[in-house]
């Protein structure tokens, strides 16, 4: 049994990833209850803060995805209230959630990340769509990958193989964010490495290899059972496994993250791991990558989540 009295799991919010957040929250709550923890699940609305202040929990476990849970806003408020929570500081969340900022930070630290450009929607209006796209394709050779600068779950993300596909990819991207990240497509195996810290320092869980049936790990492939094949642990040599795990832990540290993160990367044919992005609130649904990694490490999810909560409650 746990010596924690009560934990509040935050799930829902108003981002495009609300449904995924609710599923993550339900799974975390069930796992914690299985580990002997009393859990209350709450949405992020006008009743939340009064309820937290009226009956302060031992800790809060946010499972909020997208802007609601990853841009640091909720984390900042929880810190102001003096409530321990599982996750990174507001400052670290903001840095990691903004993909161009995260890429700049990890490249400055010596990690490999594909070349990119971040372009606000207003730039196309001010300078002309054709001229801007011509400048992009002149500087970044095809194929490319276009995705929102701030967001997750591959919403608004598109692989671009021809110049003619680029305008539609931009439109899809701008449906979810005002700034597009356009990066060079790096071929290789798609790998995700989760990092957890239960009080003894951050360490990587076994890497997970992702093979989408459609060839693209998009929203449907992420959250529809059977559309993607996962290998946990990934089919890597010991040297490759060490390289991707070291990259994930370094990214976690460089960005000042805490408790939990997941780094998405491409492992090139030459063995180079390429950082794509990091998630400060990784999905915790039944098809999500961190639970798969924990299973590959023979970790009980309820115990892992309980240990994360206990670590922040005791700090």
UniProtKB/TrEMBL annotation:
Ranges of residues in domain ATP-grasp: 103-310
Keyword set, alphabetical order: ATP-binding, Cell shape, Cell wall biogenesis/degradation, Cytoplasm, Ligase, Nucleotide-binding, Peptidoglycan synthesis
Job of this protein: Cell wall formation.
Cytoplasm is among the record's keywords: yes
Protein name: D-alanine--D-alanine ligase
MF terms (GO), sorted A to Z: ligase activity
Record bears the keyword Disulfide bond: no
Pfam families documented for this protein: Dala_Dala_lig_C, Dala_Dala_lig_N
Family (UniProt): Belongs to the D-alanine--D-alanine ligase family.
Source species of the chain: Catenulispora subtropica
Gene encoding the protein: ddl
Pathway connected to this protein: Cell wall biogenesis; peptidoglycan biosynthesis
UniProt-listed SUPFAM superfamilies: Glutathione synthetase ATP-binding domain-like, PreATP-grasp domain
Family matches, as PROSITE patterns: ATP_GRASP, DALA_DALA_LIGASE_1
Species lineage: Bacteria, Bacillati, Actinomycetota, Actinomycetes, Catenulisporales
Subcellular location: Cytoplasm
